[in-house]
Amino acid sequence: MISKTSKNRTIFKKYLDSLSEDDFIEKVIIPFFSKNGYILYRLNAHGPGEHGKDIIFYRHVPIFYDHEYIIVQAKSEKVTTGNVAKLSQQLIRALRVPFPTKTGTSNRQANYVLFINSKEHSNDVNFEFPYLIDGSNNIKILSQENVIELLFTNDFIPDELKGKIEEYVSLSSDYEQEIRNILTTGEPGNINFLLNKKLIIETRPLSKEIQGLIINFIFHKWNEDRSWAGTVLPMKWLNQYFAYVQKSQFEKLFQVVEEYASSTHSYEAYNDTSEIVKKLTPNQIKSFEERFFDLIGNRALSYNFLKDFPLLYDKLKEFYNSDQISEDKKDICLTIIELIDIITARREKRKVKNIDLQNKKLLERQDKLYKFLGLE
Predict the structure, then answer these.
(1) Strand partners, 42
(2) Residues 186 and 114 in one domain
(3) What is the domain extent for residue 106?
(4) How do residues 74-111 score in pLDDT, each as one tens digit?
(5) Residues near 337 by beta carbon (within 8 Å), at least 6 away in sequence
């Protein structure tokens, strides 16, 4: 849990002050809502067509028999008495103007609109804002101090601040013992209720020990049944509680990479599997670096690699450009990237200035890869 110290508050403040609007959305807003059980529905490009709707999130609420939609108007700018009226109109517009569904056959309206600013508001702005939005209970105004408080209470640390924020370990509580009992007794109904509903809406933070227990349980559940149907719930849960993965458990994530790259993957679980792969960080990939290159190296010889496994290609490049990759692996990593690029160019029949040079590069990189894979 995050210690509520003045030092931590200052770190959060300086971090939020440094963010652009796009970075605020990418590094704070989206992962924060994801951790709290919301799914990104739409991320709009800035422009006149967005109707005040920067981001749209949703989650299923069983008691409503429906989805709950939240529109977030994210800002990273100074709000003054000169522009507060204009911003208020944007929020009212976002609440009143419907947005199209994914099918395009009907429209939906937001349940709530949130104005979230990474910067502070003046006292005058704090006073005027509620009146200018007609006091609507469906529009919420959050300034920097509110964001900081949410980071504390939700135990959320942006990736760039991990290791810089002071944390403390909470003592075991009755609540955590209840979670432990449910996971170890193995009663399916209780387990499903805990992971599908209770923990999603629970606001009490969990210790690292219990978070690790939940992740171990998810992988244990998956390894008991690796069938298509048996993969669905573990991938759903792992995607939902990905932030709980401890450093000692990073190696387990390679199993998800294998599932994503499998020719017989679970199609029903594929969306969650893909989302987990997207979330992998270079620090996590480092723990299974050798196997990662071996798997992608074998798949790189496929004619349709970039079409079939686009996320692996993205993660490979991200890892290559990080400071986590081992020095002795940089050459083979670059070789695989270049081989994929050449094969993709050929599949797409792109014109090249020197076909002989391309052929030579292709053969050289294939030979390097064959040696690495022991396929000489």
Answers:
(1) 56
(2) no
(3) 6-161
(4) 999 988 888 899 999 999 989 998 888 877 767 888 99
(5) 313, 316, 317, 320
